[in-house]
Amino acid sequence: MSARKTVRVAAGQGFWGDWPEAPIRQVQGGPIDYLMMDYLAEVTMSIMQKQKSRDARLGYARDFVPLMKRLLPDLAAKGVRVTSNAGGVNPRACADAVREAARRLGLSSRVPIAVVSGDDILPRLDELLDRGQELRDLDSGKPLREIRDRVLSANAYLGMRPIVEALGRGAQVVITGRVTDTGLTLGPLFHEFRWSPEDWDKVAAGTVAGHIIECGAQSSGGNLLRGWRQVTGLANPGFPIVEVSEDGSFVVTKHPGTGGVVNLASVTEQLVYEMGDPHTFITPDGIADFTTIRLEPAGRDRVRVHGVRGRPRTDKLKVSIAYFYGYKAVGTLVYSWPEAYDKARAADRVLRERLRELGLEFEQILTEYVGVDATHGTLAGPPDPEIPEVQLRIGVRARDRAPVDRFTREIAPLVLTGPPSVTGFAGGRPPVQEVVAYWPALIDRTEIEPHVRVELLDA
After folding, report:
1. Cβ–Cβ under 8 Å, residues 209 and 189
2. What DSSP character marks residue 33?
3. Boundaries of every domain in the chain
4. CB of 201 within 8 A of CB of 221?
């Protein structure tokens, strides 16, 4: 098979819970070669791990399966291939569910499904620690052993290589665990163009392409700051597509007739999303230097990207670890005019005094006055005394559940035993929630790559 001159990779989902119509419209709205669907974030993995611990058949993005059921006929007819990390902590179960959907549609033999695993190191944690992989918190420097008994999930970030392998073995749908957002785009590009994985400029170019489309419509007019008033048609937003050439340059665009916009502002805002040092954007596949990126308009809803330079990958992989930290609860009351802000502050003082008198101990009590300081912090001057309404939002966090549970019982009484004019109180007592904390770490690459496994699930 000869390499294509242009490969079109379309974003279908930017996070778990994104617009369910987007992947359907990407496949049906015009020519694409690949549909990339990104579902995972750090907290997502711990949620999925908890689901799997309760039911071994779960632990993946269940939204993905009904979407695939709708998509499979078009995928089979058009030859569009899918890469997705919807598998979460249970990619095999996710693939089984998709394969069952294909079987019911009579498409099992026409849509081969691949599974990428090996990122989940939770069962291997003790072995890895004993071998000297300390998995220190990148922020605090503390070793993982300090919280080992509270770890809920641990996943290494895989790159494009297993996806390239899966596509090379004929998979039309590739379902992975914790593969990076950018890896979902890099895989198709390196498979199609037969680029060397050590061509660091190509790795960087594909990384930038993947980064631009990984958050869905955020690069095609959604959540746009500059010029948002001029963005039209967001009831039918066009999700982004990258048209990549063999030299590594590409055009960001969207299907004609869709809402939103692709312009220098929309692409630039996405580029700086989650940005650290712009010279060193590190992925499992290599390092991209974002200061080398060149953007230029290339027509209506078209932005050309070129000139990206890269450097070799590191000898480490990042590990996303989630652990149980304690409990929290958040309650709200809305106070109306007149003197809404003063009423809300008085209610906060009353509630805090009651909690002290009960002898309850919290790690943190946080109060926000929505409409006054919740978004931008404390204002330089006093708020407008005629502000029509203020929402008192107060949250607590503690290692033990008991004080948090008692806090939830102290909110509702303020309606009749505190300042006047409470409105909008609904929903009853706020729920007590478990706090899941994030522990980023590094691990030697050699500990992970040998255990990556790709299985082709034939009909």
Report:
1. yes
2. S
3. 6-119+157-314, 321-438
4. no
What tens digit of pLDDT does each residue of 139-179 get? 999 999 999 999 999 999 999 999 999 999 999 999 999 99
Collapsing DSSP to helix, strand or coil, 21 comes out as: coil
Residue pLDDT, tens place only, 100-133: 999 999 997 888 999 999 999 999 999 999 999 9
pLDDT at position 458? 47
CA distances to 181, 205, 270, 405, 437 from 293, in Å: 19, 9, 13, 51, 34
Per the CB < 8 A criterion, the answer to whether 285 and 198 are in contact is no
* Six token digits for residue 256: 């004609």
Say if strands 250-253 and 173-176 run parallel, antiparallel, or are unpaired: unpaired
Task: Write the DSSP symbol of residue 144.
Answer: G
Question: Domain 321-438 belongs to what topology?
Answer: Alpha-Beta Plaits (3.30.70)
Q: Which of 224, 223, 205 is nearest to 304 (CA)?
A: 205
Helix axes 200-213, 264-271, angle to 10 degrees: 110
Are 336 and 394 within 8 A, CB to CB? Answer: no
89: closest CA among 112, 123, 63, 66? 123
Token reading at 69: 């059921």
Q: What is the largest CA-CA distance in the chain?
A: 76
C-alpha torsion 418→422→424→430, nearest 10: 0
